[in-house]
Amino acid sequence: MMEKSLSELEQYRAQRCHDIEENYKQILDNIARAEAARGVDEGSVKFMAVTKTVEPYFINHALSLGIDLIGENRVQELMSKKPELNLEGVDVHLIGHLQTNKVKQVVGEVSTIQSVDSVKVAKEISKVSQAKGITTNVLVEVNIGEEESKSGLETNLLLETCHEIAELPNIKVEGLMAIPPICEESAKVREFFAQMYKLFIDIYSKNIDNINMHILSMGMSSDYEDAILEGANLVRVGSSLFGARIY
Ligand SMILES: *Cc1c(COP(=O)(O)O)cnc(C)c1O
Fold it and tell me: Among the CATH numbers 3.40.50.11540, 3.40.50.970, 2.30.30.90, 3.20.20.10, which is that of 6-242?
């Protein structure tokens, strides 16, 4: 009995690891094709494996394939999995909505917080980073579809917010992040990505002191190629790599 269930687990793991490898190859091909179509250098788009709900065993397998950037959504899940992950040479970002009262726990545990959507949370990140003697990189999350249900900053507050964050010590704006509305048509989602690219270039060209606007994080499993075609240089892919999430 014991032996049988053990080997079933092993079979399941081997199969899923194999799937992850095949998926990763396919994704890299798709990214390369989109890069070529966009006319940017191969390898210029950074790939992030989104690891929410995925067990450390499979995350470590993905890391063994050469993936060097992962994203988690929830501080608690990140903290509980982190000790089991082989993170040498791997960058970890927080990509989920961050409440002010969780800032203390996450600052110093990730290199970048991609989901900063208020001056209030930025101030807390700045304060905690200062206390820990480190600088935390952040992306400003934009609610590009202006959806009530979504976090992210309204586009008309973006510039002012970037200026305010730039004034704070121990926090550095490195770019923008967005999750556009779910669109049935690729043309529609590309419009949102194009709007994001325009905002990104607008702020970049303003050369604001203490802002290094160089990362545009957009595109997930269903639309990362469209995002690259519109100028994304960091894509966040979960289910296309690891398989569908079962919550
Ligand atoms: C879950 C998640 C992703 C990845 O989603 P998939 O559709 O599984 O690729 C990317 N970004 C954020 C912010 C997420 O929460």
Answer: 3.20.20.10
